[in-house]
Amino acid sequence: MHIVVCIKQVPDSAQIRIHPVTNTIMRQGVPAIINPFDLFSLEEALRLKDKVGARVTVLTMGPPMAETSLRKALSLGADDAVLLTDRKFAGSDTLATSYALTSAIQKLAEEDPVDIVFCGKQTVDGDTAQVGPGIATRLGFEQLTYITKIEDLDIASKEIVVQRRSEGGVQVLKTKLPCMITMLEGTNTIRFGKMDDLFRAARYELKTWSRDFTGAEEGRVGLKGSPTVVSKVFVPKPRAEKAKMIVADTDTPDAMAAAAIDAIFAAQPKLAGDLLARAAAGL
Description:
The chain is α/β, with parallel strands linked by helices and 283 residues long. It contains eight helices and 13 strands. It has two domains: 2-220, 3-Layer(aba) Sandwich (Rossmann fold), CATH 3.40.50; 238-283, no CATH class.
């Protein structure tokens, strides 16, 4: 079994800077971490590796500095790592990113067919939750999103049973492999790396792939392949109004409610007349 885990190196949210011309995140000089949501998917993939003996490949697209995140994943127990990096990928939106990652996964599948693709629920810098489903759509994989638990994995029948959190409760889903899974946060606890894995990660010869190597079309990656347009990036201005303390005569609910209503009518002189007019009209 071959599992691919897509991770992303994201900037520290406290030090994010925006390019004034391209409206994209400037990553140079900003401390970076593995997207926290991706760690839950990585841990779940490693648990499947422990259980059924799967091979786990970690894949990321980003600048050369993303190598540190891949080595971190290797130190936790991943078997292989691929860095998809090329200046032509710069500025990719979720559509172009999912296409580029799909091209890399298809390249990996030429050597060893991919059974499961794990992605984080979303990234802390984009918050779109679109890349994972985009990869699944392009690959033709079943989509299992917002998963809280993998109940069973049958290698012989190539079937997987999972629990999915929904607004109405928990859904138990069963589907055939291959599939794409996004794990929900808090579903597991990331392990500590073993000493052997730490040494192996330090010595590992990282695979670095370019756009040409994966065969991705130039017009479908980077800014050229990104139909999303960020028209404006700005920091919201603080509101000038300050909160007002309303003091009631007593601490009883009726007195506090009456004081709040009096304050509302005092701030909106026309409100009383409008309410009386609507009541007279039967509205």
